[in-house]
Amino acid sequence: MANTEASWTDSVEDAVNSVFEPVSKFLGDIVFYTVNIFGTDFPLIVGWLVVAGAVFSAYFGLAQLRHLKLAYRLVRGKYDQQDAPGEVNHFQALTSAVAGTVGLGNIAGVAIAISIGGPGATFWMILCGLLGMATKFVECTLGVRYRQVHADGTVSGGPMFYLRRGLAERGLPSLGKVLAVLSAVMLLFFSFFGGNLFQINQSLEQVQSVTGGEDSIFSTSGGSLVYGALIAALVALVLIGGMRSIGAVTSRLVPSMAVLYILACLLVIGFNIDAVPGAVATIVTEAFAPEGVAGGFLGALIQGFRRAAFSNEAGIGSAPIVHSAVKTKHPATEGVVAMLEPFIDTVVVCTMTALTIVIAGGPLYQETRQAATSGGEVDTSTGYGISITSDAFDTALPWFPYLLTIAVVLFAFSTVITWGYYGLKCWGFLFGHSRTKDLVFKVIFCGIIVSGALLSLGVLVDLADASLFLAALFNIVGLYLLAPVVKRELHRVLEYVRRRDAGETEEEIEAAEAATGPVSRGGDGTTSLTK
Hints:
The protein is mainly alpha-helical. Helix content is 76%, strand content 3%. The protein has a single domain (45-490), classed as Amino acid/polyamine transporter I (Up-down Bundle). The strands form 3 sheets. The protein has a two-stranded antiparallel ribbon with strand order 1-2. The chain has a two-stranded antiparallel sheet with strand order 3-4. The protein has a two-stranded antiparallel sheet with strand order 5-6. A hairpin with a 2-residue loop joins strand 1 (34-37) and strand 2 (40-43). One of its GO terms (cellular component) is plasma membrane.
């Protein structure tokens, strides 16, 4: 029976791979095109994302640092506007977006990055995360500025809308339409395979590893099917409730799983407290003078930048879809809140993972570093990355593999529900919104969850990764062209905050804005100064 089960899944895998492998290779070679810099391959798409972060950081005067306090106050609800269009508050929008980025990459990807690039890669990871905060600010402000509020009060937003509407305002309607459609197609494809199938497949592997490996009940087709069906049912329940349901779930789930994971990291660090100063010094020193890293300084930088860029998704265009659902009359308020997303994902969670692995110095990490240092081949799979992290925790917490499994499943679940929402909005943009059309998407999406428990479909996942970062090419072009709009929105919200802090009412502030000069109105009815 087991052989029969294996044979039909292998047949499906082989059939799909044979069809899509040429397409995946062609697109991957383009999107992830690399240039060799002092012996290290540097993907140009990473440079595209990092440069955008640097440009926006300069253009907005390091807004990601200057307005961190404002972001905190907004998340705490100090300036919430309950009568504003939208579906969720700032905190719920933030946790929903974080749910889509904090995932397996924070556990597995970081382990691989510092194994190949050395501890110094952590420093560059943090820097890239800080730069990504500026990009996230720009795209999420635009997401709210050009969103569409439907008659039933639900909201649709994201790159599809600000590229089409925003570039039309700039006199480039044709370019805007093309970029909008391409972005929607790329993000929709990723939602099916990268944000869904891959997450389920990898989380199931971790469940199997702690429940008996090949002898686990979850290693049989029946057990895998039960796992996939259970996750699909839970995801369906959340998606049926729409953005309000997603916000309610993620506002509880994301803080809980983040705190759980960070506490586990702190426990390991606490067990090795004497090693902390040395580990921090190593991270800083090896950022500029790494030992045994191909490409030296640039090798560490590339690994750190690559991990951060792939992890926080700044510039991809995915996060604005969920941030657009916030209740606000001032688009830049959510842009400011969105800056916290790369900070949480990269500066906090990724750094905690890296610091834990470096301090613990587990045998698997040491073995992998030795292989990388000697020029040997390093396994870069997600499963192996999880094993490195688990091995580090095991030095202090022998029961950690079970805790890690819970974290992996929760991370995967939260990622899937958020990408389900992203995919639904892209689907609606391309095919129109109706109860029937939305139901068709949800059935397909949940069906892929079940298939992800049975099939890995690696070629489709690779193709999805290429599609996701191809979306960044289209999105960032629009961000550059629309940056002046964001600057006006930032000035407007800072004036709004100043007036609120001075004790003025919403009515007084709106009257003052109306008297200032000509305003343009976004699809949600928000006003934007054009003078």
